[in-house]
Amino acid sequence: MVKPVHAADVAEVVYNEERWQLFKGLRTRALELMESLVKRGFNPIVHGSVARGDVSKGSDIDVFLPYVVPSYKIEIALHEAKFEPMRREIVMATPWQLPKAHIYIEEDRSITFPLVNPKQLEVEFYYFGGAASHAQVKQTARIPGVDKRLMLIEPTPRGHVESPVIGREAEAAKRVNVSLGIVRERVQVLTRREDVGHTGIFIQRALLPDESFEEVFKRLVESHPEMKVRLKK
To answer: Among 33, 57, 159, 191, which residue has the least CB neighbours within 10 Å?
Structure first.
């Protein structure tokens, strides 16, 4: 498990050619997926290390739509681009958090979208980690963001500069262009996770080929009354 860094010096990390090539390959694959959605009028982002640039061999490509959309429209867009999903699932970390749909093209490449209207902090979660639009991905722009160690990653021509967020929450919020609220929330969550570990996932439901996200989500709400807490917010 990646642990938060509570204190560290500001450091520059210089990428070697292998890392630049890995970044280029991940961005190419992200762009393919994003373009299938843009052609249908959607405005996706890619977030995390693929947006920031500090990729590793374990980096995943997660393309996110920050608003509710009928799932069939996304699946039509993927079908037109000749993408064949390998897995579809609904995930809800807790009864009061955002229920999300995931469509996996490969194990390391997926599309995520909310099944109810997200709150501001739930959208900012993605920008906290660094989020790049379709246009920014096309321009190979790299975006500042915070990694799972709670280190602020700021891209440079040679790689990136990293610095600790803990104790510098207000400065990090400005650098990443998110609210101080999401920075404090992520620091609290990740430092607590360091102490108690992962506490499991409330719902992770794989869909059968003939099931839609909407119908399965409706059935989940009916069978789990506690989910209605999130739906009222």
So the answer is: 57
Expressed as residue numbers, the domain containing 168 is 11-231
- Reduced to 3 states (helix: H, G, I; strand: E, B; else coil), residue 1 is coil
Please state the pTM of the whole predicted model.
0.93
Q: What angle do CA 209, 215, 218 make, to 5 degrees?
A: 140
The Cα 181–Cα 178 span in angstroms is: 8
In three-state secondary structure terms, 64 is: strand
Number of domains in the chain: 1
Tokens of 146: 């915070």
Cβ density class 67-103: b for 16+ within 10 Å, e for less: eebebeebbebbeeeebebeebbbbbbeeeebbbbbb
Structural domain includes residue 1: no
- The answer as to whether 2 is a domain residue is no
